[in-house]
């Protein structure tokens, strides 16, 4: 599908009212649950970082390097993961299960790490697990529920938001009850158990239908993806947003737990976990609303204002002190911080060929990995030079820059295919 043709379908199509089948309800619920667990670990990881920094006596740049290692592995794995998901459609449930097991192994390695290098390896493996999950999960939803794409991706994303809320609190409590090493290692047990359960549920549910044409047709569609200026613009914007987001998240956790004499707030792990959780709380509710609005009014007019507002609230972290003001700002950040991901994904799928759905998702995550690769290290330099709070100004600037890029892209209304499941 050409960019012009895709854009035409985006601008002219109207969303039909199609009931969701029981099979698709089971599919969406299972994927949202798995996504919840995955994000419990991803955001719990943020609470682990300051204890790791303290244990190995790392400076701010080395601290940022841990998050950069996760970005690096995501960059390396995302495009191959998208290709595997696209070409091995019948094995999509097994790929999802392996993603959960992989993250469990990564956390076990983190807990057993004897030195900084092994910590970097564990962090990188966390990025690998994330990369294996999203292409098959999101492309399957886009193919099976095209008439409700924004809604479906937002429900899946809402599962992630719940995990973002529960994970930091759970990790903080585990660290308080045990040690950070034990808290990390025991996570492999529930992850393996859920991986087996999800595989058993999803293995008999067909994924994406074959669109015909074989590898040659797929290759042609793939070339079209990388020459699609709108998709590449969205990928760049998403990458710049990731620069701000990853730096802000990593150093917000450090800011909460760092000693007051070092510019932090001196919170305990459970208290820090609660604040990080609050930064995602309202997103549980805003995620489906934003998805619905993007289906109705267009992706751009949800993404741009949300990025600007997110930048404003992140910048306020540099000025507000502990107390009700900080809680209010953190809650407002939660309205947009994670919810934007599903809208970026839907916007990209709107203007691409069905054959490259998995590859499109992989491209967005690879862009996040590429742009976010050095951002935590840059944030470490900023923190070492100007103080931790200065990192939030940097994060806010990246959000505004991403908004300006999306503003000039030719995005219209959501695309809806004629078929349904």
What does this structure look like?
The protein has 18 helices and no strands. With 421 residues, it is mainly α. The longest helix has 35 residues, at 22-56. It is 78% helix and 0% strand. It is globular and about 60 Å long. It has helices spanning 3-12, 22-56, 60-87, 92-112, 116-144, 149-177, 180-185, 188-202, 214-226, 229-257, 269-281, 283-297, 300-316, 324-334, 340-350, 357-372, 375-386, 390-407.
Range of helix content: over 70%
The major β-sheet equals: none
Query: Which stretches are low in confidence, meaning pLDDT under 50 for 5 or more residues running?
Result: 1-17, 416-421
Approximately how much beta-strand content do the residues carry?
under 5%
Number of β-strand runs? 0
* CA-based gyration radius: 20 Å
Question: Total helix count?
Answer: 18
**Topology pattern, helix = H, strand = E:** HHHHHHHHHHHHHHHHHH
The pLDDT mean sits at 84
Summing up helix and strand content along with how strands pair, one would put the structural category as mainly alpha
Oligomer: single chain
Q: Report the end-to-end length measured between terminal Cα atoms.
A: 22 Å
The coarse overall form would be globular
